[in-house]
Amino acid sequence: MKIGSRNIGTGHPVFVVAEIGQNHQGSLEIAKEMIVKAKEIGVDCVKFQKSCLEAKFTKQALDRSYSGKNSWGRTYGEHKEHLEFTIEEYETLQQFCSEVGILFSASAMDPISLQQLKQLQLPFIKIGSGDADNIPLITEAAALNVPLIVSTGMQSWNQVERVYSILRNQSMALLHCVSAYPTPPSDAVLKMIPLYREHFPDVVIGYSGHELGLQLSVASVLLGACIIERHFTLDKNWKGTDHKASLDPTEFSKLIEYIRSVENLCVQPNMEDILSVLSKVLKDNEINPDDLKEALKPVTIADRKLLLSEIPCFQKLGKSLVYKNDFTRGHVLTRNDINVKVSEPHGIRPEFLASVLGQRVVRSCFRDEPIMESDLMKDDTKNN
């Protein structure tokens, strides 16, 4: 694939993305400071996260009480509002990145944000793990004719195949990812990277890491990852849940140095060869052979599933099918009746949208409520 003027894939330099996300604390000036620092240490691209809160979350999800040391507001909606930049502020950051000389991009977290990011003419748009089962959003993104990068945390192998089937004619990349912050080495399943390369040979494969330290991300390059994405922070002690699993400038600078040292090596994907390379590149205190062994366990397609360590993220940010309007008992659901949002409680996952269409509801349903299996008539009676 091509991102800006860069060719990305086997035989080309690894494309390194610093995920600023919302680690900017809601401050445009801190965001600019992070951009400058990312450029100084050799990052190829900084990435943010764009949300329209009313399109991403149900009202109940936004209105819930949200207290604690990481909260920026009384409710979850107020917390998220503090951290969210407007599209005009995104334009400001995009222009600033152009002046600094670093690529700028963002994840689209809902349909409105997707269309807004399209207007910015980004070098690529990211679809995060929380939307990798959001078939409506992925289908809409496929129609934009924009390079797409999709993280695959919390997904089944069947869903990864479905994403691939929808986007395979696009310029696209799939990132192996585990949505646990931080990711335990035993759940990193890094050999999913060569498995992706085997099963999806015509798309770029990369790695979005949330583990502590550097060795697993460097190992992912030795396994064939052509894109590396890690969260970036200026201070791991700042308020926010992502900072602890992020890399500070010193760590990120080391990561880039190590990636550039190994990206052209041809290494067998086994523990002994990878450990041998890492021992020559990383410092002794940056290598943990036991953790590496855990991360390099053999895997099959059955290992690409929602992991226990990912459940907290799924419970917080996993999306559901929700009612777009109020409906009376007996209403037959059409595509125009359904949205995809983060809801409380969780309802039917977006990947099962097709199975819901044409079903009758057995109760009065209200806007932004999650669609539950118990709401729907059984298949043998829905047309009676």
Walkthrough of the structure:
The protein has helices at residues 28-40, 53-56, 59-63, 76-83, 87-100, 111-119, 135-142, 157-167, 192-199, 215-222, 249-262, 271-281, 289-295, 311-317, 353-356, and strands spanning 2-3, 6-7, 15-21, 45-50, 103-108, 125-127, 148-151, 172-177, 204-209, 227-231, 319-323, 338-342. It is α/β, with parallel strands linked by helices and 384 residues long. The chain has two domains: 2-303, Aldolase class I (TIM Barrel), CATH 3.20.20.70; 319-375, Antifreeze-like/N-acetylneuraminic acid synthase C-terminal domain (Type Iii Antifreeze Protein Isoform Hplc 12), CATH 3.90.1210.10. Helix 6 (111-119) links the parallel strand 5 and strand 6.
CATH superfamily of the largest domain: Aldolase class I
Average the pLDDT over all residues and give the rounded result.
96
Number of domains: 2
Low-confidence stretches: none
Terminal CA distance = 50 Å
Provide the gyration radius in Å.
21 Å
Strand order of the largest sheet: 3-4-5-6-7-8-9-10
- Kindly provide the name of the CATH class of the largest domain: Alpha Beta
Let me know the largest β-sheet. 8 strands, parallel, barrel
Q: Approximately how much helix is present in the residues?
A: 25-40%
What is the tally of helical segments?
Answer: 15
Say how many strands there are.
Answer: 12
Class based on secondary structure composition and strand pairing: alpha/beta
Shape: globular
CATH architecture annotation name of the largest domain: Alpha-Beta Barrel
Strand content: 5-15%
Question: Topology as H/E string?
Answer: EEEHEHHHHEHEHEHEHEHEHHHHEEH
CATH topology of the largest domain: TIM Barrel
